[in-house]
């Protein structure tokens, strides 16, 4: 997996906040919501990179920028060796959209209740200007439905969304992505609205599709345990920044950032937590308070208001990502202190 497919450099997405009439009269400077505030990431071909974080961390916005659904404020997006940062406009985006597809969180909101399953899956072929005959489109639609586990495909193609279960609806959304034969799939919380048993089936399907079709995934989730099972690498995001990134096993077994350590400590695991020398189990770290407002990002390390081990330096300086192992990086001033001890 050394063949790089996607690279983002210094990515920023800032949304302006509309002020009131008093702000205008007093000429107060406009505020912005720093949804994504300068991140670097790479995704290799055939890889599953899990982007993990709380609600409001900026992970969905990052996925939307990669899928060219949201414009970035700054930074570069390089796909397949080509800088696509300034790639906009329906005609110019069509070839890109054939290579990058999205699976959204809510399948029922994604589907048009007035369209049949076959109509939904066929629509990307109609707007993608591929000039396929009706028979060719029909063949690709049925093949995509079969690949998504909806069999017999011809039977499901004539159904409407209200005739399907939640898991079947999400399979239809997956088929809608597969019909374009993409290289990269941005999966935004694709199983969070499904029952646990159905989640397992969908995750297994995604792994099978990666093997059969050579797919690459950006898997966006708030569930660290799912990321551990599914992903090759995990990137932990907090308030618009990457706090830790590395191989999934290393991030889970040896988290270096206090935020990641807190997430791991409360994450469900098939293995019981290790006991200390006195026979007590390792304590769980419960984070207090909510994520700070992205329009008022605290100075210094943005996690320090909730960090149980913050030091004075955290209040004034933001730590850079530091190497803590092969392919494993974390942002924390405590890492430097450990090295000097």
Overview features:
341 residues, alpha/beta, Rossmann fold, eight-stranded mixed β-sheet, four-stranded antiparallel β-sheet, 13 helices, 34% helix, globular
Concise structural overview:
The chain is of the alpha/beta class and 341 residues long. The protein has helices at 21-25, 59-66, 90-99, 107-110, 117-127, 134-147, 153-157, 166-178, 196-213, 224-230, 248-253, 258-265, 333-340, and strands at residues 4-17, 31-44, 48-52, 74-79, 82-83, 100-103, 184-188, 216-221, 233-238, 241-247, 321-325, 328-331. The strands form two sheets. It has an eight-stranded mixed beta sheet with strand order 6-7-8-3-9-10-12-11, with helices on both faces.
DSSP E strands, number: 12
Task: Count every helix, treating DSSP H or I runs of 4 or more residues as helices.
Answer: 13
**CATH homologous superfamily classification:** P-loop containing nucleotide triphosphate hydrolases
Rg over CA atoms, rounded to whole Å, is 22 Å
Largest sheet: 8 strands, mixed
Q: Give the integer mean of the pLDDT values.
A: 90
CA distance, first residue to last residue: 36 Å
Helix content: 25-40%
CATH topology: Rossmann fold
Name the CATH architecture. Answer: 3-Layer(aba) Sandwich
User: Beta fraction of the residues?
Assistant: 15-25%
Instruction: Tell me the number of structural domains.
Output: 1
Gross morphology is globular
In which order are the strands of the major sheet placed?
A: 6-7-8-3-9-10-12-11
Q: In the CATH hierarchy, what is the class? A: Alpha Beta
Q: Unreliable segments (pLDDT under 50, ≥5 consecutive)? A: none
